[in-house]
Specification:
Elements: H1 6-20, E1 26-29, E2 35-43, E3 47-53, E4 56-63, E5 66-75, E6 79-80, H2 84-91, E7 103-114, E8 117-126, E9 129-140, E10 143-151, E11 167-175
Length: 179
């Protein structure tokens, strides 16, 4: 039997693959419109210092309605603690050294599921040092949140051990646009 219009078969195959196959993914760009990256450190062991990053890019990939990959680059120059002197110090060669290490980088290695939580095993690079970390991504409706206790000494950020707390709480919120 001779098929007069073989392109119709190709078209039907393409439609079937694009609508039914799990190989296609949804990629969402990270921005300040859908993501916040905030942190809390202690000053002189007592007072909390709140801060955030205001410039970053990256993406979240969803497959089968679950996060399957995350990558992010955070610009160190965008650190904001609402204190100009502190911001300048944190960016300086004496601390984060933004001229040598302009980015904080995050990349997932793999993700697993545990109850309502997606667990991300990832590499986090700060100040030229890469550490493997684990984040618990908690989903509520279309909002994903995680909180991570970061040991700044693990990234060779050791100046002012008495003035700046060793542990820094990092809070990240990502909102997936509704379908």
């Amino acid at each position: 039997m001779f098929i007069k219009h073989p392109y119709i078969i190709y078209l039907h195959t393409f439609i079937l693959l694009t609508t039914c196959s799990p190989i296609f993914a949804e990629t969402i760009k990270l921005s300040t419109q859908n993501t916040t990256i905030e942190f809390i450190a202690t000053h002189i062991g007592k007072s909390p210092v709140n801060g955030q990053f205001n410039d970053f890019d990256g993406y979240v990939i969803f497959k089968d309605k679950q996060i399957s990959n995350i990558e992010a680059n955070i610009n160190v120059s965008s650190i904001e603690t609402f204190n100009k002197i502190r911001n300048k110090y944190l960016k300086s060669k004496r601390f984060l050294n933004e001229s040598k290490y302009p980015l904080i980088q995050f990349k997932t290695i793999n993700l697993t599921t545990s109850e309502n939580t997606r667990v991300a095993n990832a590499n986090l690079m700060i100040h030229g040092v890469t550490q493997n970390i684990e984040l618990n991504l908690i989903k509520q409706n279309n909002i994903y949140t995680t909180s991570y206790l970061l040991d700044r000494f693990d990234y060779n950020l050791t100046p002012h051990k008495q003035m700046i707390g060793q542990m820094v709480t990092v809070n990240i919120t990502f909102t997936k646009p509704t379908d």
